[in-house]
Design goal:
5 helices; binds fe (ii) ion; globular; alpha+beta; 11-stranded antiparallel sheet; 11 strands; Jelly Rolls; about 230 residues
């Protein structure tokens, strides 16, 4: 397995609107993760630092102005390295727009708020029950703003839900997909979001939920502030 990784990987760049220095720096971090030079935690720490440094650069921050309600995403890079892939983009969240609660398969993401205020809830996946339902526990419930980072990976804060509060939000996001050797769900083939409902919980704060499609998630959560839904005390 390691030998396959060391041999020249097949690299396919799908989108590249990134400046050369950023491209090289990000690629170095990503390839270090791919080759096992970083643990996932070390990678996350490095990427949080990378995002914070860039968010201090007005020229970089100005790239977020390319996003709007009409043009939700501004991609800097989309690249595949063998079966792994990564991307970096700015995206726009309209005032009171929710990204409904969802979990991810084999995704390591780092996101930094560029502008605006976001109400964010993060959850841990506790287990996949025998009946197929997912058990979750709330990990954080907070308001975040410019310069604040939130991260998700296979084994840490994999589940999140957020909504823009008091105006639109711009977020810079780096996603790395397919880099985990061991995954929570073994048979999942796709990297997409799986939507869930974390609003019912028992006295211990444990949430048991089914998964459903984006359309149903939209019906349940779109345009609704997170504070409408209580959390365990
Ligand atoms: Fe997500």
């Amino acid at each position: 397995m390691i030998d396959d990784r060391v041999e020249s990987p097949r690299i396919r760049t799908k989108i590249s609107k990134i400046d050369d220095l950023l491209d090289e720096t990000l690629f170095r971090h990503i390839d270090n993760l791919r080759l096992g030079g970083y643990s996932v935690d070390e990678f996350q720490t490095a990427l949080a630092e990378f995002c914070k440094l860039n968010a201090d650069d007005p020229e970089f921050v100005a790239l977020g102005d390319n996003t709007s309600v009409e043009n939700q995403s501004h991609w800097l890079i989309k690249r595949h390295i063998d079966h792994c892939r990564y991307s970096a983009l700015f995206y726009h969240v309209a005032d009171n727009e929710a990204h409904p609660p969802h979990h991810h398969h084999n995704v390591i993401s780092t996101q930094i708020v560029i502008s605006g205020k976001l109400h964010l809830r993060e959850y841990e996946r506790v287990e996949r029950r025998g009946d197929g339902k997912l058990v979750l526990k709330l990990a954080s419930d907070r308001m975040i703003g410019p310069g604040d980072v939130f991260q998700a990976s296979e084994w840490s804060r994999n589940v999140h839900w957020f909504c823009a509060v008091d105006g639109p939000v711009v977020i810079f996001n780096i996603n790395a997909r397919g880099f985990e050797d061991k995954t929570f769900d073994v048979d999942e083939g796709t990297f997409g979001r799986c939507y869930i409902d974390p609003t019912q919980f028992d006295e211990a704060g444990l949430i048991v939920t089914e998964e459903f499609d984006a359309e149903h998630a939209h019906e349940l959560f779109q345009g609704r502030e997170l504070k409408e839904f209580p959390v365990p005390t």
